[in-house]
Amino acid sequence: MKYMLLMQFSEAAAEFPPIHAWTPEEIQAHIGFMGDVNGKLVASGEFVDGQGLAMPDQAKIVRAGDGGGPVVTEGPFAETKEWLAGYWIVDTDTPERAVELAAYISTAPGPGGRPLNMPIEVRPVMSAPPQEL
Amino acid sequence: MLVRRFGDFDTAEDAVQESLLAAATQWPRDGTPDNPRGWLIQVASRRMIEQVRNEQARRRREAVVAQREPADRQSAPAADVPTPADRDDTLLLLFLCCHPALSATSRIALTLRAVGGLTTAEIARAFLVPEATMAQRISRAKQRISASGGRFRMPEGPDRADALGQVLHVLYLIFSEGHTSSGGADLYRIELSSEAIRLTRAVHALLPDDSEVTGLLALMLLTDARRPARIGPDGVLVSLADQDRSRWDRAAITEGIALVTRALPRGPLGPYQIQAAIAAVHDEAATAEETDWPQILALYQVLERYSANPVVALNRAVAVAMVHGPLAGLAVLAETGSDPRLAGQHRLDATRAHLLEMAGDRAAAIAHYRAAANRTASLPERHYLTLRAARLA
């Protein structure tokens, strides 16, 4: 069963200073942990995909205008207080295992090497219909 | 004859040619057998099994079991001498791939790799994961078997029946993975059903008298026959009642019915044969209205004795509704609905919605269709349930 693990970042809920206030060592430890997560998932045979996303000031918001052409709103979006920082798709034997992986990702280190405990949203990926008799 | 038995024309052709070659060398030497046609078919059958096995040989070198090639196999044995060693090789490998220490996903991956004809890349594509992930899953499964210690022996007595049951379950899971795919982008997944059928055919050829193996093969053929009609061009699930039956695969239905008809009276009875019989009753009906629901209801009652699980009970509720009316079906659901195994599952809501719709309670049917649509993990099914609710609203 596949699950998407969404790393949601919320400015309001974050109990740690913004990353630009971290020391280089703290930033490196954080990046190293994230790289490790991918390696561990590949080694356990559960990795499907994992991507980090650019910050929201790189984002564009697109709507269709008259005639279907794109109407683009460029960032930064002052109202953006929450955004998707990255995601993984994992293929696990059980739903419990997906939750366990999410908890592990949530321990990514921040300032002082302490776990950030960032919220990870776990969503089942839709699959094929079940067997009928 | 061989094509019919093995369902693979090219291999059958090669096997027949080889058996003719064997006849040309052996008959002048040993004399023509009493039943030349039977002799040829038997030799060709054995050649086909060997060819399937040869195809697997490359993969087997990677597998944990060392290949044994007794010297007496170098020359063609007499056709009437069974070769239990060959049979046991393939069975042992299947038992090993479905080792109790492995999770279902690992058993599936290892079976497809070590016994089936698929490469790691193909298996990865079929399960929509990167090749490295699948390679790792397979290699971890092998390590796990080694770590479980001891030389793996051919299980005997009740253990053997249990091990065979595990193998059949894995083959069924592989089949379901492919069968439930919608086609198009899912084409690689559909290959899984064909592979499962091919492997089950091979097991059936090794154990032709096992009624559950025969039942499973029949179930797969009878279910797979409906695949072309199961998903509409828009990717929406088409219910059995609404399927275009002219698109069902007649040849597969004929073969499936023949198999289950042969297995049932022979026994012992088991859940695969009963499910195959249910599928056969559906497949035999020229239109949904002509379905022999009393017979299906009787079969579900038998099936519940063998595998009492709430999903079977849901299906029985539908059959009860078709025979005795929707209110009787809803009464069955009222009993079944409290089963904790159904908690949070969309199937209960979907079935209840269906029966409420039959009973003419539109508002309640819509509510349950919507609840089921929110809970299902299948996109084609969500489309189906959402549409069903929208049509009633």
List the helices and strands and how they pair.
The complex is a heterodimer of chains A (about 130) and B (about 400).
Chain A: E1 2-10, H1 24-43, E2 47-52, E3 60-64, E4 70-74, E5 82-91, H2 95-106, E6 120-124
Chain B: H1 2-6, H2 9-30, H3 36-62, H4 84-97, H5 104-114, H6 120-126, H7 131-147, H8 158-179, H9 187-206, H10 211-224, H11 227-230, H12 250-266, H13 271-284, H14 293-306, H15 310-324, H16 326-336, H17 346-359, H18 362-375, H19 379-392
Helix pairs in contact in B: 2-3, 5-7, 5-8, 6-7, 6-9, 8-9, 8-10, 9-10, 10-12, 10-13, 12-13, 13-14, 14-15, 15-16, 15-17, 16-17, 17-18, 18-19
Can you describe this structure?
The complex is a heterodimer of chains A (133) and B (393). Chain A has two helices and six strands, in the order βαββββαβ. With 133 residues, chain A is α+β, with helices and mostly antiparallel strands. In chain A, the strands form two sheets. In chain A, strands 2-5-1-6 form a four-stranded antiparallel β-sheet, covered by helices on one side. Chain A has a two-stranded antiparallel sheet with strand order 3-4. The model of chain A has no long low-confidence stretch (mean pLDDT 87). Chain B is mostly helical and 393 residues long. In chain B, helix 6 (120-126) packs across helix 7, helix 8 runs antiparallel to helix 9 and helix 17 (346-359) runs antiparallel to helix 18. The A-B interface holds A 1-2, 41-49, 91, 93, 124, 126-133 and B 103-106, 127-130, 132-134, 136-138, 140, 176-177, 179-182, 186, 189, 223, 231, 237, 240, 275, 278-279, 315, 347, 376-382, 384.
- Tell me the series of helices and strands of chain B, N- to C-terminal: HHHHHHHHHHHHHHHHHHH
> Could you tell me the strand content of chain A as a percent range?
25-35%
Largest sheet of chain B: none
Span between termini of chain B:
55 Å
Residue fraction in strands of chain B: under 5%
Low-confidence parts of chain A, pLDDT < 50 over ≥5 residues? none
Biggest sheet descriptor of chain A: 4 strands, antiparallel
The helix count of chain A comes to 2
Poorly predicted ranges of chain B: 1-14, 61-82
The averaged pLDDT of chain A comes out at 87
Q: Distance N terminus to C terminus of chain A?
A: 22 Å
- Structural shape of chain A: flat
Indicate the percent of residues in helices of chain A.
10-25%
The portion of residues assigned to helices of chain B is: over 70%
Q: Give the radius of gyration of chain B.
A: 23 Å
- Overall, the morphology of chain B is globular
Helix count of chain B equals 19
Strand order of the largest sheet of chain A: 2-5-1-6
Which two chains touch over the largest interface? A-B, 22 and 40 residues
- The overall average pLDDT of chain B, rounded, is 81
Looking at the chains present, what oligomeric state does this protein adopt?
A: heterodimer
